[in-house]
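Honest question from a wet-lab person: if I give you the sequences of every part of a complex, can you actually get the arrangement of the whole thing, not just the pieces? Trying it with mine:
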Amino acid sequence: RKEVEQDPGPFNVPEGATVAFNCTYSNSASQSFFWYRQDCRKEPKLLMSVYSSGNEDGRFTAQLNRASQYISLLIRDSKLSDSATYLCVGYTGTASKLTFGTGTRLQVTL
Amino acid sequence: NAGVTQTPKFQVLKTGQSMTLQCAQDMNHEYMSWYRQDPGMGLRLIHYSVGAGITDQGEVPNGYNVSRSTTEDFPLRLLSAAPSQTSVYFCASSPGRTSTDTQYFGPGTRLTVL
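Yes, you can. This is the full assembly:
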């Protein structure tokens, strides 16, 4: 079983829609989580960190549920420019490593 | 600032050839790392460095060497290329000595081994 698992998608949504991605993790020792965005054939870039209390950045909201071991990303009012692959990332301090999910692809259409 | 730069952008090798992928950053970051990205596998850590003169193995180190003689540069050497090393390679750096800080990735090197 992969340490960080994501639905690969693609999620095809119309512009203006709300879309949510989930990511599950198996290592309960994982301490920190992040969402990275990766455009086609480009490098990943940090979208936001994920806190237990939840955090919001404009149209993006990230949540962490430690009891169920999943992380979510909610995108409201989707824009064409949101089309990308979203990578869920966990950090385990004891191993000092980041573990990347395989990504969820989002395609926003007119 | 140029950020993280990688050269070359594309490379084709024959099995058994060796080469070095270059990575440089101008942000004075302590932590640097190399990942490979394969379809359906996610990014996997090859080697990392927490500062000049210090390197350590990641998840998939076999077939690769690294060195960190300066803060700025972190080259990745393929000793004897194999088709299994066909992949996209990303170098990343971050300001702190742990990987919880924001990772800044280079644009990647697309390597094909025939």
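Two things worth pointing out. Chain A has a mean pLDDT of 92. The two ends of chain A are 37 Å apart (CA to CA).
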